[in-house]
Design a protein that fits this description.
- This protein starts with a strand and ends with a helix.
- With 339 residues, it is of the alpha/beta class.
- It is built from 14 helices and 9 strands.
């Protein structure tokens, strides 16, 4: 099954651990993490949204202690990660391509080329006037999630311990509403996955675009604050949007634990809940690879065929699996980008 994925953190992994030679690492294989080109080919991964994400400074110091004295410059880190994505495309010898439209993604699929879409996860470093968002758009970014877990000038991300409600903070600021309007004007996808509930409903009110949660699950099955309530799922459905299922154990399991003894059947159960509320045309995959702990039965991107075997065992036919794997993403991206 050929799969297009709504969210991953490959660029963060490359920036942290392979900054000196990211292209070589990606195409030759990466020992740690979930993603690299050989395993993508093995798993039938044909493209996705690649997150540009600046973690807290303490996280960088913990993961790469030898870089702890480097200045923490969030905006520069964003540009460095985007440059890595451009490098992968430019030095791929035709194996990968940066995509700016749904037509580009379709062409990549037809030609057997990996489709790369640049996505901003967390707008903390962006200015309130919109100049930097415009600059990133001009450099190829086509998708933005205004928040991660921390508050910024645009509003607040969803926070809180398990079990908890997504109603964890205030809604969009005036700058946040302006960001939504600018993203709409640019036909950028707006990701609601890390929005608290008030910010979500503000976005539903002010955005003219389909609501898309690139990597979230059903709160009714796993009461993580980051997961979506039935009312939110219904609003996404009514907007013509979609949800990408997150593969993180902590977002799947009813006990909220990061225990990797999570059966693949649990991913199927989240699909069934989302499908029950939104319909089979509004659900895709949003793995969060390289950003979460995965079920042992899946392991990494090479395990995607095992996931689809679990869907076959649950009596989902070829057409339903193809919608889940890529067709629903193709639909909603075409609708958002209008090309």
């Amino acid at each position: 099954m050929l799969t297009f994925d709504g969210h991953n953190d490959l660029l963060l992994n490359l920036w942290l651990h392979h900054r000196d030679a990211p292209v070589d690492a990606f195409f030759n294989g990466i020992a740690q993490g979930h993603l690299d080109f050989p395993r993508m080919q093995q798993g039938g991964f044909i493209g996705g949204l690649f997150a540009i994400f600046v973690p807290p400074q303490a996280y960088i110091s913990k993961m790469v202690p030898h870089r702890r004295d480097e200045p923490w410059q969030p905006l520069e880190i964003m540009w460095q990660q985007l440059a890595i994505l451009h490098q992968i495309a430019d030095e791929s010898r035709g194996r990968a391509r940066l995509c700016y439209s749904a037509a580009d993604i379709a062409a990549c699929r037809a030609e057997g080329v990996l489709a790369l879409v640049a996505h901003i996860e967390g707008a903390d470093a962006l200015d309130a006037e919109g100049e930097q968002l415009q600059a990133f758009y001009d450099a190829g970014v086509r998708s933005i999630g205004p928040f991660w877990n921390l508050p910024n000038r645009f509003g607040a991300g969803v926070t809180g311990a398990f079990p908890g409600s997504p109603d964890s903070g205030p809604g969009l600021t005036e700058a946040g509403k302006a960001l939504i309007r600018q993203a709409n004007a640019l036909n950028m996808l707006i990701d609601v996955s890390h929005m608290n509930e008030k910010a979500f409903w503000d976005t539903a009110k002010y955005s003219t675009s389909p609501l898309v949660a690139t990597h979230s699950n059903a709160h009714a099955l796993c009461a993580q604050p980051r997961n979506l309530t039935d009312a939110q799922l219904a609003a996404i459905r009514d907007s013509g949007g979609m949800v990408g299922i997150n593969f993180g154990n902590a977002f799947l399991r009813a006990d909220g634990q990061r225990d990797d003894n999570t059966p693949l059947r649990v991913i199927v159960q989240h699909y069934e809940r989302l499908k029950m509320i939104m319909g089979e045309d509004c659900v895709g995959l949003g793995s969060d690879f390289d950003g979460i702990s995965t079920p042992k039965a899946l392991k990494d991107v090479s395990g995607l065929p095992r996931l689809f075997a679990a869907f076959r065992e649950a009596d989902y036919d070829q057409e339903q699996q193809e919608k889940l794997a890529s067709r629903n993403w193709q639909r909603v991206l075409h609708q958002v980008w209008q090309a």
